[in-house]
Design brief:
The structure is a single chain. This protein is mostly helical. The protein has six helices and no strands. The protein is 61% helix and 0% strand. The radius of gyration is 18 Å and the shape is globular.
Length: 127
Amino acid sequence: MTAQTPSSPTLVEVSQLAQALEQFATDRNWAQFHSPKNLVMALNGEVGELNEIFQWLTEEASKSAARSPETGQAVQDELADVLMYLVRLASVLGVDLNAAVQNKLRINGEKYPVDKARDTAKKYDQL
């Protein structure tokens, strides 16, 4: 894990959500089921449910799926499920999501420099 430097902005703040999820699991005695393996499998299932919503939408329809009367609530619910499982997984593993995101943004910035990556979807090894 990378430590946050004093000048680094907080990009991800999930401590209150992590505490709420911990309490939710504790109240139900579910921590026993929250192994990293189980949580990542549940996360994958929720991403699959989100994927189902978009599966047959056109590119154009997908852009407004979160605001559509037909799909909006389902998109919001599945995004919430994905976020909650992700935060719970990070918490169980002891991963500081803010530090991880800051580090990954730095790495991606090095792999995808603006002058080479602008306006292209090529992978970094093809730039």
